[in-house]
Amino acid sequence: MTANPPTSLSLLGLGAMGSALARTWLAAGHPLTVWNRTPARADSLAALGAKTSDTAAGAVAANTLVVLCLLDDDSVGAALDGVDLTGRDLVNLTTTTPAQARARAAWAEERGARYLDGGIMAVPPMIGVPEAGGYVLYSGSAELFAAHGATLAVPAGTTYVGADAGFAALHDVALLSAMYGMFAGAAHAFALIRREAVDPVAFAPLLADWLTAMSGSVHGTAARLRSGEYTGGVVSPLAMQVAGTPTFLATAEEQGVSPELLAPYFGLMRRRLAEGSGEEDLTGVVDLLLRESP
Ligand code: NDP
């Protein structure tokens, strides 16, 4: 019995990310056809064995599995304008909003293609380096994911998050939004020590360990959101935490640091407390962020 030969595929988009993806498929022996708007970017991949197509239509026609890694949703529309997608399996790794992903899925299905959307949780140097921990979130056609999961797993790990084509983008942006909140907190912390005789390099491990220790709190928040019970087993009640916020703001003032990153979150905590939720933890802030209708 012989193993199946590596799947042949096409890739549209050879920017920093697309080129990194292409190199891993070529290194793993997958026959690869590439197209890029600016043709010269395909030269180094041709030298590694990629077939090049002068047109997006040619690259799409070359293989059933077609991966897109373009700048944004508009560039996907521009690249595939008028291209016959009948019978193609489109995997769109271009970063978009959830609504753009859903619209693009419907657009592709109207044109006779199966559609899978992807959100890349990695930077190019992590592609093809399994120990780097990068992965791609996928959502959309479960059949397409089942058929091509092994090929898609070559550049980075794969995590399928549901049949709704918008879910990969939704998860992607949710995770990155939390990351920016963490970056904001770290920026404030470094600003507090910036003018003191505190070595930022010595401070960093304390900060990283603390963020790691606190990150587990998301599981408690998730359980409360699921149950709707925000008060049971609370260790640090909102009222106590709000009472502590003047210390944080006064310390920022003493250190000559703007509270502009911290203050909005404290404002939400105070609003929730004013609603009579002092026995809760911080979960209620999630609900305060929800607008009446999206
Ligand atoms: P680059 O800016 O390096 O490349 C952009 C690609 O899009 C190029 O191939 C460019 O072609 C093409 N492109 C832009 N506009 C058009 C258009 N109108 N028609 C056709 N092609 C077009 O971006 P990356 O490769 O870094 O990113 C690609 C996708 O991957 C993005 O959606 C990005 O958000 C996502 N991503 C990137 C990460 C990163 O760290 N780089 C991390 C996670 C996701 P040309 O060469 O002709 O300009």
Q: What do you see in this structure?
A:
Helix content is 50%, strand content 12%. The chain has an eight-stranded mixed β-sheet with strand order 3-2-1-4-5-6-7-8, sandwiched between helices. The longest helix has 27 residues, at 167-193. It has two domains: 9-164, 3-Layer(aba) Sandwich (Rossmann fold), CATH 3.40.50; 170-289, N-(1-d-carboxylethyl)-l-norvaline Dehydrogenase, domain 2, CATH 1.10.1040.10. The chain is elongated, with a radius of gyration of 24 Å. The protein is an alpha/beta fold and 294 residues long. The structure holds NADPH dihydro-nicotinamide-adenine-dinucleotide phosphate.
Number of distinct beta strands:
8
Oligomer status? single chain
Taking pLDDT < 50 over at least 5 consecutive residues as the criterion, the unreliable ranges are none
What's the helical proportion of residues?
A: 40-55%
**Secondary structure tally, helices:** 12
In whole angstroms, the N-to-C terminal distance is 54 Å
pLDDT average, as an integer?
96
Q: List ligands, each type once.
A: NADPH dihydro-nicotinamide-adenine-dinucleotide phosphate
| CATH architecture term of the largest domain | 3-Layer(aba) Sandwich
Roughly how many Å is the radius of gyration? 24 Å
Give the DSSP E fraction (strand runs of 2 or more residues).
5-15%
Shape: elongated
- Helix/strand class: alpha/beta
The main sheet comes to:
8 strands, mixed
Q: CATH first level of the largest domain: which class?
A: Alpha Beta
Written as H for each helix and E for each strand, in order along the chain, the element string is EHEHEHEHEHEEHEHHHHHH
CATH superfamily of the largest domain: NAD(P)-binding Rossmann-like Domain
The CATH topology of the largest domain corresponds to: Rossmann fold
Q: Please, how many domains?
A: 2
Strand order in the sheet with the most strands: 3-2-1-4-5-6-7-8
